[in-house]
Structures are given as structure tokens and as C-alpha cells.
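Notes from the pairing session

We agreed to fold both candidates in a single pass and log them together. This is the raw record for the first candidate, unedited. Please don't reformat it; downstream parsing expects exactly this layout.

Candidate A
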Amino acid sequence: MSRPTGLIATKGIELLTWATPNGVKASVLLEELKEAYGLEYTSQAINIGQNIQKEPWFTAINPNGRIPAIVDHDNNGLAVFEGNAILGYLARRYDVDHRFSFAVDDDDYTRAESWIGWQHGGLGPMQGQANHFAVFAKEKIPYGIQRYVGETERLFGVLDARLRDRDYVVGPDRGRYSIADIALLGWANGIERLAISLDQFPGVKAWLARVLDRPAVRRGLNVPAADPPRPTALDEVDEKTKRERAELKKIVDAAKEQYGYKYASP
């Protein structure tokens, strides 16, 4: 695949993304809209490891130099950045039957906003920092590891309590699949890389299985294209990955012990 150097579409939605927990928000919803309404879109792979998102053509679209971003060529070339802003925009403009969202005068619209805001201000930043300190940083700093992995666990405890007697995060009765679930999907799907077992959160695990069972979700998780398809948190991992996670768990457990961390949620 050639390195992107600018926009390539002249009509419809153009998606600029990479397969991160934030990046898949846009691709999953676009796949759902495509299946439900026939909404076509163009996508470009923005390899963040190559810093394509820092190039001037991209920062003209998103000044913050982050993925995902979209350009709506059918709406005067409007650029929208931040995954949750993209969810809101696409839902308002293209989910006309509210299959994945709620009408503005429906109280569930506000409930969905609350959970999406919770993800944006809490779960995403905390889990992102946990990934940095526990997985990516060459120097394993115990305080940072126990602080952010612990807060990630606490937040998943909050989500687990919400899903204890619900199928989806927001909606009447046991809930209805919506952009609130899509906002959380990528983060829940990446929890086990932190050596946090989904078995600790049975409500989250059952909800994740329910969401991953949707064909559009599976397709959206594989934008940009991946062959073979990207594994999910519910797939069996190979022996190498098991060993790496076991070693990471030792590091995390030692950091927690050093600072007296005790799990509590909320």
C-alpha cells in the first residue's frame, strides 16, 4: 500500500485511520452505516508508526495530528476529528432511522453522551497510559504501572456493574446497541494486552462477545485491511503471547504490591 500524501476522494466520506482503540470507532460505525443504509466510504491507512499523521496535509485536517479523522466531501469538505466527535457527526447526519443512536429529545441520547464522555475522559486516557507504562515504555516504572493499570481496572469495574443486568450500555430495558457501545469497543477489545483478564469482568466479557458477533463490527475492526483478520480479545492466543502476558502480569503484580494497590470499584 502506497504512503498517503493527501485526500483521494471527491465525494462521500473519506476516513483517515489506523486500527487503534480510537481509530476503530469510525470504521465500525461506517461499516454499520454501510450495511444499514448503503453509505459508501473511502478509507486511507494512516500508519502512525511512520508519523504520517504529523505531515502538513494531515494536520490541515486535524491540527492535533491524531487519527481518526474524516472528511465529508458531500458536506463542503467538512473535516471532523476525534473519534467520539466522528461518532456523533455520523450518527446525526447519516443514521436517520436511529438504528445506532437516539433522537435528541430521547433521554437515552443524553445517557449515551454520558457514557461516551466517560470513555473519552476516563477509560481511554487511563488505559492509554497503562499501555504506555506497562507495554511500550522501555523503562518499567512501578508507580506508573500500578497507577494506570489499577485505574483501568477500576473503570472496567464501573462498566461491568453497568452491564451486570444489561445487554448494551444504553437504551430501554436491557439496552440497545448504539454508538455508546462502539465508543467502548476498541478499549475493551484491548484489555488483555495489559494482562487483565476479561474473566474478572463477566458483564463486560458477555457484552463484548455480543458486540463482536456483529459482522459490521468485525469488518470495522479490520480497517485498514488486515490479512489474516486481526484477533480479538476473545480469540485464543499463541504460546508466545501467553508467555509475554504472564511476564507482564508479574511486573504489574509486583508494582501493585510495592505501592499497596488494592482493587476497588467504583
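Candidate B (folded immediately after A)
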Amino acid sequence: MQKNFDVYYDEENLKKILLQRIKDEENNIFPSVILIDTISYCNLKCFMCPHKNMSRKPGIMSWDLYKKIIDEIAIENPKARVWMTFFGEGLMLKDLDERIGYAKRRGLKDVVLNSNGNLLNEKWSERLIKAGLDVMYVGIDAFEEDTYEKIRVKGKLDNVVKGVLKYKELLDKIGTENQKIFVQFVEMPENEKELENFIKFWNSYNIPVKVRPKVSWAGKVEAENLKDYEFRLPCNWAMNTINISDQGKVCMCAVDLNCEVTFGDINKESIKEVWNTTLKDFRLKHLKRRWSELPDLCKNCKDWQSSYASYIEPEVK
């Protein structure tokens, strides 16, 4: 399912698109996607993720900072997609459901969680659904147990499968029609032959599948799928997303694990202020293709090729 960007690339058409997007920046005053690092600890050591080598100290976001972030989103853009975790495993956070509940009470419409699912059980499922979690994404990345154990190191596929199916069961019983669960498959050479069976299995339980390409985490992991194109396109993550660490630092992007490049501090500034100053300058450099002026971590990064996903819905019977 990898994209071949040569098919989509047309210089003249791209110029027109980018000029329009530069004009649109006048009205782009608040992010449509906010990633919150409520917890940066993780219980797995996945081979395609550099988290196990993270150099910044892991932590848990304070309630004061969390409320400040949620309260601003509630005023400025309650329809924004708000991810409850950035790099960590949310189910390690004991008050995760309370935080989700606070966001929903403040009127946020799209609160989502990504999890590896190894701690997902009936109790957690009920707590998350009742708190109002809109969408749950569970990263699994394999159909066969031995493949899973090589990719999701320290994880147990059987536990994850049981947890996801229980979540779906409870969702059908006590959830609303707007609440959903997806399973995710990060496509790579180690698992690509299992994708078809993976989709068939989960779709048979009426659970949609999200497929996305492997990322290099700004060069920290080998990603064979990323090509050396003669051209470069603006990164979708840079255009739409703000990433806030557990300490309130605004990290450059969704693959800046160690927050090596910071564009602001939400303890001292508002999301809107950072979005319309340092991050706006960052976006415009992308849109104007001034690649040489980007931070070193971004300058030669190929992960713009991975900032998309495909969704496979179950067939309607």
C-alpha cells in the first residue's frame, strides 16, 4: 500500500497548490491536530520505534498544564483532533480516563488514544468508553504470533487480541455510534506478507484497519520504504499538528522523540501564540520549499513520505 510519489508529482500543479496553501495560512490560526504527551513512559521495546533509546527523561504531564491545554482547545477549536498520548503508552497512566472525561466535559469533539493494547482489559475498556473516548487506535502490526513478538518486543499478541475484541463488545453495548476502535498495521518488510490476513481477520469482527507506512523517526530507525526522490513535498504533520511534551515543550514534529527542536513552551505561552509565530515560520518554509533553512533534524528527513494512512473498512453485509 506504499505510495509512489512520482505518480502524484507535477511541478506546475504543485506550484499552484502551494501558492494557495500559503494564502490559506492567513486563516490557519489554530492547529487541527494536537498531540499531548500526557505520559512518555512505555511498556514495550518495539524494534521499529526508538523509544527504548529515548534520551529525554520520561514523565507524566501535570494536571495544571493538561487543563491549560484542554481549556484553550475548548475555546479556540473544540473540533480539533486531540491525541491523548504523543510517545508513551496511555494505559500506564492511572487517571487517563479522568483526563479524557475532563476534555469531553469541556466540549472537545474528537479525543483519541493510540495504544499498543497490552494493558487493554475489560476494566480499562469500560472506563475509557464511559469517559467518552471518541476513537481508540491499537497498534498491532502482525497477524502471526512469532512476527508480533519480533516487532512488538515484550508484547503478547493473544492479550492484545482479547483486549481489542472485549473493547469492541463493550463499545457495541454501552458506547455511542460516534465512538470507534481501529487496529493499526505499520507496513514493513517484516510483516507485509501478513497484511491481507490481518485485514480479513479484523474486518470479520467489524473492526476497521488503519495501514500506515513505517517511519524513520527522523533517521533514527532504518525505513527501507522511504525513497530518495529528486523532489520533496511539504510534510502533512508540519502543516496540521502541534506536539506538546509532558513538560510543555512544543516539539518540532511527531517524530521528534527527544524534543531536540523546540518551538515554544506552553507553560509560558498559549498554543495559539506558538502556532502563529515559530510554527507558522516552520510551515511557511515547507510551503515555500526553503528546505535548507529548516532545522537539521528536519532538513534531510524523509518521513514526509509517511505522513498519510489508508483505512480499510469492513464490507457492509
